[in-house]
Write a structure and sequence with these properties.
The protein is of the alpha/beta class. Helix content is 32%, strand content 20%. It contains 17 helices and 21 strands. The protein has helices spanning 7-13, 19-27, 93-96, 119-126, 146-154, 194-201, 233-240, 280-293, 302-306, 311-322, 328-346, 353-362, 375-384, 408-417, 431-439, 456-462, 478-481, and strands spanning 4-6, 31-33, 36-37, 44-46, 52-54, 57-58, 66-71, 100-101, 110-116, 134-141, 168-175, 180-187, 205-214, 217-218, 228-230, 267-270, 367-370, 393-395, 424-428, 443-447, 465-467. Strands 7, 8, 9, 10, 11, 12, 13, 14 and 15 form a nine-stranded mixed sheet that branches. It has a six-stranded parallel sheet with strand order 18-17-16-19-20-21, sandwiched between helices. A hairpin with a 4-residue loop joins β11 (168-175) and β12 (180-187). The protein is elongated. Bound molecules: uracil. The site of uracil has 8 residues, from α6. One of its GO terms (molecular function) is RNA binding. It is an enzyme of class 5 (isomerase).
């Protein structure tokens, strides 16, 4: 253990203030080292021998340790217990000494627990007056309703002893069939069995509970239940000085704002047209322009007839339906020329798409495109928006034989990403695409698009989630998830 440290670090570590606050104290002559005025913030002091005074009071040095534990179920949140295994028992024996958990999770609850020997910090984190936020993921028996969300937000009367402070409930998924819900709940207090009692009060039972955040700290997804690691300097600083920590939910924090529909997701697959880019109108214009060349008016039901099928299938459909004498290759080549211009100049990315792609990259979640569109066009679109590097695989209508609603394009994308279909999340804008994702055994988020607005009810029925645009993912509310 290092005994020589900078004076400003010594004082900041002991909670005298932030680095800049203690530098100011040193500058103003309020700090002495062994009776002499401190020379400056960078002065090295010996934590074991030197006597440091600040504002006339001695500041002793205690070597604090801080660990983040992913608590498994079945262990007690206590330092020691005669009969049961405790969370401190999970820490390497040589490090245990005076450690204790900063707060409690029920024996069957999992997730983020801070293990430390810093009593003052633990006290701050647990003080009811500090309103430190904690986010839990919960699986609940019963269908969580919008009334529950409102009741939680208004401060729920749990029982005679407890009226909870306002809590934010974000519904991830409700299955009326299975009578279960998945939610995120954010509370700012930590009464005994609080989350379980809150759900009990609205007639539901928590069947699984995992703490994801505590103040500015987020559970490290790399920690398996029972594993722990030391907190980083930044994390310790953010706990001690939460006012200086990055805004929760900001991308820098590596977190979605509040709802994590990426939970249990190893890979994300995007449809292109209407999902990632606003392009459905492009094809309508191209079809009209193309048929116009042959003097054929565009049938009203054309878009519906070719919805989701591959480019080759569409060319065959055109050839057969409109008696076009050009070869399939020629038809596709003409479309590609026309589409190249439309796509690269007139098809913007959907709202929040770039932010979401950056976020996925940040979380190292691999992404693929699975589209019925052509290879060249897909590549050109990705290039024109500068987003090629966000995709580890691109599967197009030219790579597969059966278009959506057959699952082939999604299964191929998952295979190229080396991801299990059940751990993939698909973003899709048309019912056929959502069906394809379901047939591939993947979760699916339906994306609003003007051209399929008339099918919104069906999209909501078929998909697991519904978003208006990608910004919704960063701030979903119950209304959008219904
Ligand atoms: N609320 C609960 O009900 N249990 C926990 O472990 C934490 C919060």
């Amino acid at each position: 253990m290092k005994s020589l440290v900078r004076l400003d670090k010594y004082l900041a570590d002991m909670g005298i203030g932030t680095r800049s606050q203690v530098k100011e104290k040193i500058r103003r002559g309020l700090v002495t080292v062994n009776g002499a005025l401190a020379k400056g913030p960078e002065q090295k002091v010996d934590t074991q021998k030197d006597t440091i005074l600040c504002d006339g009071a001695q500041v002793g040095y205690v070597h604090y340790e801080y660990y983040m534990l992913n608590k498994p179920s079945g262990v007690l949140s206590a330092a020691r217990d005669k009969h049961a295994k405790t969370v401190v028992d999970l820490i390497d024996e040589k490090k245990r000494k005076d450690l204790f958990p900063a707060g409690r999770l029920d024996k069957d609850t999992q997730g983020l627990l801070i293990i430390t020997n810093d009593g003052p910090l633990a006290h701050e984190l647990l003080s009811p007056k500090k309103h430190v936020s904690k986010v839990y993921y919960a699986r609940v028996e019963g269908c969580v309703s919008s009334q529950d969300v409102r009741d939680f937000a208004c401060g729920l009367k749990v029982d005679e002893e407890l009226t909870a402070r306002p809590a934010r409930l974000t519904v991830i998924h409700v299955s009326a069939e299975e009578n279960i819900s998945e939610v995120l709940i954010e509370i700012q207090e930590g009464k005994f069995h609080q989350v379980k009692r809150m759900f009990q009060a609205v007639g539901k039972t928590v069947t699984f509970l995992k703490r994801l955040t505590m103040g500015p700290l987020h559970l490290d997804p790399g920690l398996l239940p029972g594993q722990y690691r030391s907190l980083t300097e930044d994390e310790i600083r953010s706990l001690k000085h939460p006012e200086e920590a990055a805004r929760p939910g900001s991308l820098e924090n590596g977190r979605l704002k509040d709802n994590d529909l990426l939970m249990d997701v190893d890979a994300v697959i995007f449809d292109l047209d209407g999902t990632l880019i606003d392009s459905m109108g492009v094809w309508e214009s191209i079809d009209e322009e193309y048929l116009g060349r042959f003097g054929i008016p565009m049938p009203e039901d054309l878009q519906e007839a070719i919805s989701g099928i591959s480019v080759t299938q569409t060319a065959i459909y055109f050839k057969e339906t409109f008696g076009i004498s050009d070869s399939i290759q020629e038809i596709i080549s003409d479309w590609n020329d026309m589409a190249m211009e439309h796509y690269t100049n007139r098809a913007p990315l959907k709202g929040g798409a770039l932010l979401f792609l950056k976020y996925l990259k940040h979380r190292q979640i691999p992404c693929a495109i699975a589209t019925s569109n052509s290879r060249d066009l897909t590549r050109a679109v990705l290039e024109s928006h500068g987003i090629t590097r966000y995709f580890q695989a691109v599967v197009t209508g030219e790579d597969i034989h059966k278009g959506k609603p057959e699952p082939d394009v999604y299964l191929e994308a998952a295979a190229r990403l080396d991801a299990r279909p059940s751990r993939c999340l698909v973003f899709e804008d048309i019912p056929y695409g959502i069906m394809a994702a379901a047939r591939a055994g993947m979760g699916c988020a339906a994306v609003f698009d003007t051209f399929s607005a008339g099918e919104d009810d069906e999209k909501r029925r078929l998909a697991d989630y519904y978003i208006r645009d990608y910004l919704d993912i960063f701030n979903q509310t119950y209304e959008e998830l219904k």
